Amino acid sequence: MGAGAGKRVTAADVARSLGLSRATVGFVLNGTTGQRISEATRDRVLAEAARLGYRPHTAAQALRRGSSRLVLLVIPDWPVDFSVSKCVEEASHTLEEAGYSLVTQTHHPVGTARPLWELLDPEVVVGFAPFTPQEVAAMRGCGITKIIPGPEPSPSPPDPLGLDDGPRLQVEHLHTRGHQRLGFAATTDARVSGLVASRLGAAREAAASLGLPPLVVRPVDGAPDAAGQAVQDWLHANVTGVVAYNDDSAARVIGAALRGGLGVPADLAVIGHDDNPYTALFVPSISSIRIDYAGLGRHLAALALQAATDRPLLDGGVDAATAVVARESTGA
Amino acid sequence: MGAGAGKRVTAADVARSLGLSRATVGFVLNGTTGQRISEATRDRVLAEAARLGYRPHTAAQALRRGSSRLVLLVIPDWPVDFSVSKCVEEASHTLEEAGYSLVTQTHHPVGTARPLWELLDPEVVVGFAPFTPQEVAAMRGCGITKIIPGPEPSPSPPDPLGLDDGPRLQVEHLHTRGHQRLGFAATTDARVSGLVASRLGAAREAAASLGLPPLVVRPVDGAPDAAGQAVQDWLHANVTGVVAYNDDSAARVIGAALRGGLGVPADLAVIGHDDNPYTALFVPSISSIRIDYAGLGRHLAALALQAATDRPLLDGGVDAATAVVARESTGA
DNA sequence: CCTCGCCACTAGCACGTGCAAGCGGTCGTG
DNA sequence: CACGACCGCTTGCACGTGCTAGTGGCGAGG
């Protein structure tokens, strides 16, 4: 019955056990087109393979067919945590249906551990943000040509992942709540400067299109009293609503306001971004932007499949629905 | 100079380019012992391999040698985020020095995406918490025998990763602050039940060895008012200090206490676990336990190498230093 | 001059798979 | 009955690597 606790079961074992040739087994298991296999034989093969617990040897497959059927997702090392987990899960599913698999790697600063693309040689490498020229060169050197987002700015839209909706919703939410003069809490972390700039830009655009005055941007990070100073500045500027880069920034702003004796949202309303689970645990609970990470995951997977198979995109675009989660910090 | 933007460079290419046999190239590149290769030839091979940009084909290596030189680290899907990133990074380094590579997978609830161990066939699978019997069986079915922590309780110490220090420190910290009657805030999330039990056990042990009364254990999770009920119970039991399973539980307890009009830490002191970055942002800021994730990473890597090579453990044990981070929620 | 041993290297197999080409048997058709 | 078409299967090669067994050359010793 069970394997004799030793060798791995190969396609040859299945063939031998049935008195067939290994090729026949291969045809059945791969569903090779252009080969005629009788229904009876097909069933016997499938049954025997299942009985013996046959698992194709991935390395051998990769060697023979020249492709690993692997997609590497490079996750930035900024704290994105659990939300990304959903995204990864969904992307895995979508890829799996197409016979591909997803491997993730959190991307550490340069010069540390060897990147996984060197040894898994994935067919596609996907990142949340564009890769540096050095990274792209390194991948090219390993024979990796399918890179998302691509380094060429022309064919890919500026926001391929549809992540610019959040800031717009933040601004609109505060506007709906009656706030006119808005502040923006930015983080100074160099690792996310690109993302901060992107979100700030989208927020500015949204404010402008609503006819609001320019955003009062202040840095809010781990530096002592950076948040306190920012809050002071906003008060002087008659700012009553703050758009935070993310939930971390929002929490810092709220903390500073509370410690300064202000009421949230009475004196200052704050909305975060990413809907980190902790936002619901704060007192007051923090309004935020929930991203449809599942949808984003599906979209990433579709992009990767498109690149891997050179076939046209399956889904019509980003169906990732971004939404406001209104909580106490904006007066829910 | 550079590759002609097409085929991959194989060892045979290097050999042909030098007029040598492929075997010689192989010996040099692998540093095979028991083979005499002249210094001159060795240098020529190395130089030519570098010049052509030769990279061994991982799949072919894995096929031939029967082992992938891969270690799979299964990361639970609870929010451990960045701290684990440090751990992974350090583990990667340690493994790399031994010629192994680390691949991580965040472990989603059962029934979702296919586990990576099926297709990467890693030599060792490492987890933060023990695997379920089903998971172990699944791994076995894929030919994976090296599993950490092992399912057998006998040879492996009950706390191979040295993670039981935290609860002890939590209890001692509250004791030092003058608290006698302690509560324990447990989460009911089935995914972490093992870890909860482990931490609770360690906390109980610590309380007993200090001569404290038994811990008053209450569930604290996302259910409406679970935390509020727990706080009520603790007050009735004259509990003044709460050991939380993690920072999430701690935040829930604190939130419930504040909303109930209690002072933290005046009426109830609370300490979390894991030192999630958000703990510092709460009002009041949350005391917690900081884990030396870098040290933990090195230790995990050492364990994995031991399992992979069947050689004795390199490091003398866990050098992961766990420490209390005292903040406002316990009266810092 | 022959032999033996050693050096430095080569021929070739095996790993497990995917798939092109081939091959015997049967059936339909003239 | 001859012949081709077709079905259902098999033989065999290739992928790139690690490594065992072997091989030719050459110097030393007798």
Provide a quick synopsis of the model.
Chain A is of the alpha/beta class and 332 residues long. The first copy, chain A, is built from 12 helices and 10 strands. In chain A, strands 2-1-3-4 form a 4-stranded parallel beta sheet, covered by helices on one side. In chain A, strands 6-5-7-8 form a 4-stranded parallel beta sheet, with helices on both faces. A two-stranded antiparallel sheet of chain A has the order 9-10.
What is the topological layout?
2 copies of one chain form a homodimer.
Chain A: H1 11-18, H2 22-30, H3 39-52, H4 58-65, E1 70-76, H5 81-97, E2 101-107, H6 117-120, E3 124-127, H7 133-141, E4 146-148, H8 165-176, E5 182-186, H9 193-209, E6 216-219, H10 226-236, E7 241-244, H11 247-259, E8 269-271, E9 288-290, H12 293-309, E10 323-325
Helix pairs in contact in A: 1-2, 1-3, 5-12, 8-9, 10-11
Chain A binds a DNA duplex (30 and 30 nucleotides) through helix 2 and helix 4.
Characterization of the model:
2 copies of one chain form a homodimer. With 332 residues, the first copy, chain A, is an alpha/beta fold. Helices cover 42% and strands 13% of the residues of chain A. Chain A is built from 12 helices and 10 strands. Chain A has helices at residues 11-18, 22-30, 39-52, 58-65, 81-97, 117-120, 133-141, 165-176, 193-209, 226-236, 247-259, 293-309; strands at residues 70-76, 101-107, 124-127, 146-148, 182-186, 216-219, 241-244, 269-271, 288-290, 323-325. In chain A, helix 9 (193-209) links the parallel strand 5 and strand 6. The interface between A and B is large, with 52 and 53 residues. Chain A binds a DNA duplex (30 and 30 nucleotides) through residues 8, 10-12, 20-24, 26-27, 30, 32, 34-38, 41, 56-57, 59-66.
